[in-house]
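Lab meeting notes turned into a lecture example. A postdoc, R.K., suggested we walk through two folding results consecutively so the class can see how the record format repeats. The first protein's sequence and structure tokens come next.
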Amino acid sequence: MRSPYPCSGASAGRRSLFVDLPGHGISDRPADFRYTLEDHADALAAALDAAGVRGAEVVGHSMGGAVAIVLAGRRPDLVSRLVLTEANLDPDPPATAGSSRIASYTEEEFLAGGCARTLERVGPLWAATMRLADPRALHRSAVGLVRGSRPTMRRVLERLTVDRVYLQGALSGELQGRADLEAAGVRVITVPGAGHNVMFDAPEAFAAAVAG
């Protein structure tokens, strides 16, 4: 399907798919789904297969970027280019990371009140991005993100041969392992004045990177 949203210059004239991962947005919320990175990647692959897509340019932010990397590793036929915005590359992120804080709860604790406390703590912008997520899916996704993939997302990204762009917000600090990523052919772009949500903080720079 074509996107119902207004196209930027980067996507004008192209078919654009906006995908809510399982348990997020308006997608289904299966209680028996594990919500690991591999599960999300397989669900995304199924969506692309159903749409008849091959060689897509996949744009992913944060956990979505990690899912995009795993997708490219598992189904290289589906991906021709990756644009990653502060994608998670390593398991076991710092305790201050949102995924680590969510995963510090048991699933029962998170459903009983941890989700509400998390939404209060992160503030209105972050809460707006998570408010349509099923709490069970949010917790299991965070646990899966903390666990990471095998091999790690970083190693998969380094081994891919497709065009790869990684956007890092300058306010987030230096990207760990940047030199190794660049040596592997990943184009790393530091976006001035932007934090983790580059698309909100610097939309023009984000659109330019998507346009290539």
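The second example is placed directly after the first for contrast:
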Amino acid sequence: METAHFTSGEPAVVITRVAQRQWHALEDDRVAGRGEASTRPDGRTFLSIDAWHRSVFDRLADAMLADLRGPLHTIVDEADAELTAGWERAGFTTRRREWEYVVSTGGAGPVAPPPGVTIVPLGAASEGPLRALDRVVRAEIEATVGWQEMPAEVLPHPPGDTVVDPAKYAVAAEADEYVGLVRVVRVTRLPRIGLIAVRADRQRRGIARALLAQVLGALHDAGIPTASAEVNEANPAATALFESVGARRASSNLELVRHGE
């Protein structure tokens, strides 16, 4: 977690790389700040810094940038101007904005899938066809906007495999194959709709909306009143999908990037 509210003063600190991707700022042998780098499934490296003092943040950022090759990324709450300014001092610029939506699980109501399509509920998908669909969807996204435009979880997985836990998915099936999927991540009390994707040759038929309505209904039946989702502002189709089920914008995040060596 990054600390956004810096205090005044410039403590004397020593920056130490304590692990391959971890840095500490030490003041009289006490930890005054921490920095960490993590690699997401799409290969991008994201940085985070936890520090109360502006100068400690800057020293940690300088040390991390000296040790790592770019491009490097970070995520900040757009409302946190001070933290954003800290990364901008380190040479980061805004790459994209993601809207954080909150949606009532009881607001969508039942939505019938198109003829010939059935919805397989959360946790009931067959693993083999699910992984096959995931590979198709990933290839289609890579060939168009690029997978780096999709929200990604920092989770371990075998190379080339983005299905970490099949139990997190509901799918749409047609003619004995899977044609669409939705992933629900329950990392907190507020479940997150992590990904909705439909094969390119099956889009614009209402499959995505039927998938979303099904998982929202399942969460509602489980006593969970709301869920969240991150939507790239450059994706009008996803924005329209969530707003069609009554989702509201709660906040926004900026992805910042620093190119270079």
